[in-house]
């Protein structure tokens, strides 16, 4: 009886000790959580209200979260909004003078304009040499802007650019674009044991359409450069040029209800990707956002805003992120970029550009905004805290 009593006494004591340890552990964790400030609690996103080439724009960025985005400020009803910084809780990044709260993709998520989107402008990340080469004399926000002495070559007949400045980087359609790739909602547990995975520092491109985020890892785009996709009722093309470090997205419905897909022509203008549409084989400049030769000459793309940032930041931005998978049907090794040496050095592209500008390091990543043939760039250093 004594042994039985001692046995129950020991189990009771052990249970009490376990409860005390659990209680101590929970209280300790609770105290830690209460004492640690969330990384999104401070206004770490800077907001700049600007006019560029008579276009009212707003630029928001964060060196901490490694992103910069730009949108138009004049709404379809004619109202020009003014924005201010807020305590940063991504995906919300700014508030306007009407009391609307706007997210990182340019949508109003609270206020009288809830559901509306800021006008898209031609704005995207890229290397400095690419922006200064494609748009000689580009302005630098909070930077030096000397007088430019440069005379561009004349435009060729049937082109919007000098045809003698078009160079072949590879064969026509030799780089395989991806058509309607697989995508799945990211779940951390599902990524365990995958052949390829995203590091927190991996750069990922993303669009928000009809309330859904669709993401495209740059490690895949290094091999394919163009993705033809559909989100809801919207037909999109996402294009990334590894040489200029630029990423854009546009509507694949190009004219009069014609929906086409795009491929990689292998041609370059100012070292930048030239796409072709498979309906007419017209040539389209990625950075200029227009058809430069062919049936749709001078046709402007319908721009879809795209965000480039790290995987770590994307996981803060939202839940239910749809990510293009590494299951592409191709046998490429997506863990190793074919442009690794190029991306890691400080020299510009080996292919010609029309103008070299040494105000910034050639490979510095900047956000450029292009309006009517002119450009203005923003640096991460302008958005530090």
What does this structure look like?
With 385 residues, the chain is an alpha+beta fold. The protein folds into two domains: 38-152 and 356-385, no CATH class; 153-353, no CATH class. It has helices at 2-35, 128-134, 218-224, 311-317, 340-344; strands spanning 46-52, 55-62, 67-72, 83-89, 92-96, 101-103, 108-110, 122-127, 139-140, 166-168, 178-179, 183-185, 203-209, 212-217, 226-231, 234-241, 246-251, 253-255, 258-259, 262-269, 272-277, 283-285, 290-293, 307-310, 322-324, 365-371, 374-379. The termini are far apart.
β-sheet strand percentage: 25-35%
Number of domains: 2
Helix/strand-derived category reads alpha+beta
Which residues sit in consecutive blocks of at least 5 with pLDDT less than 50?
A: 1-40
Largest sheet: 5 strands, antiparallel
Distance between the termini: 71 Å
Question: Total helix count?
Answer: 5
* Number of E strands: 27
Name the strands of the widest sheet in spatial order. Answer: 10-20-21-22-23
Helicity, as a percent range: 10-25%
Q: What is the alpha-carbon Rg in Å? A: 25 Å
Summed over residues and divided by their number, the pLDDT gives a mean of: 88
Note the overall shape: globular
């Amino acid at each position: 009886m004594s042994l039985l009593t001692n046995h129950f006494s020991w189990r009771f004591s052990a249970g009490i000790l376990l409860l005390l340890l659990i209680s101590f552990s929970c209280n300790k964790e609770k105290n830690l959580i209460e004492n640690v400030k969330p990384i999104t609690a401070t206004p770490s996103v800077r907001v700049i209200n600007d006019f560029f080439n008579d276009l009212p724009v707003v630029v928001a960025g964060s060196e901490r979260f490694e992103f910069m985005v730009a949108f138009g400020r004049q709404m379809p009803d004619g109202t020009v909004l003014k924005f201010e910084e807020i305590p940063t809780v991504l995906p919300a990044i700014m508030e306007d003078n009407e009391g609307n709260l706007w997210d990182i993709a340019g949508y109003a998520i609270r206020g009288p304009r809830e559901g509306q989107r800021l006008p898209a402008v031609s704005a995207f990340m890229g290397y400095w040499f690419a922006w200064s080469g494609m748009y000689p004399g580009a302005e630098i926000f909070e930077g030096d802007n000397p007088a430019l002495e440069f005379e561009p070559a004349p435009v060729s007949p049937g082109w919007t650019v000098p045809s003698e400045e078009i160079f072949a980087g590879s064969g026509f359609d030799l780089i395989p674009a991806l058509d309607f790739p697989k995508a799945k909602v990211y779940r951390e547990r599902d990524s365990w044991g995958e052949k390829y995975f995203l590091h927190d520092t991996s750069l990922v491109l993303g669009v928000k359409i009809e309330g859904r985020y669709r993401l495209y890892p740059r490690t895949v785009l290094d091999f394919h450069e163009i993705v033809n996709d559909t989100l809801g009722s919207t037909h999109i093309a996402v294009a990334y040029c590894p040489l200029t470090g630029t990423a854009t997205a546009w509507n694949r419905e190009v004219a009069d209800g014609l929906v086409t897909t795009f491929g990689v022509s292998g041609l370059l203008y100012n070292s930048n990707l030239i796409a072709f549409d498979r309906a007419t084989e017209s040539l389209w400049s990625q950075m200029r956002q227009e058809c430069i030769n062919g049936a749709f000459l001078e046709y402007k793309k319908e721009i879809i805003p795209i965000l480039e940032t790290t995987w770590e930041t994307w996981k803060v931005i939202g839940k239910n992120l749809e990510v293009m998978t590494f299951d592409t049907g191709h046998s490429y090794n997506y863990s190793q970029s074919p442009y690794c040496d190029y991306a890691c050095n400080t020299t510009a592209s080996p292919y010609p550009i029309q103008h070299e500008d040494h105000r910034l390091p050639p490979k510095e990543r900047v956000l450029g905004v292009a309006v009517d043939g002119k450009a203005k760039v923003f640096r991460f250093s302008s958005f530090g805290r």
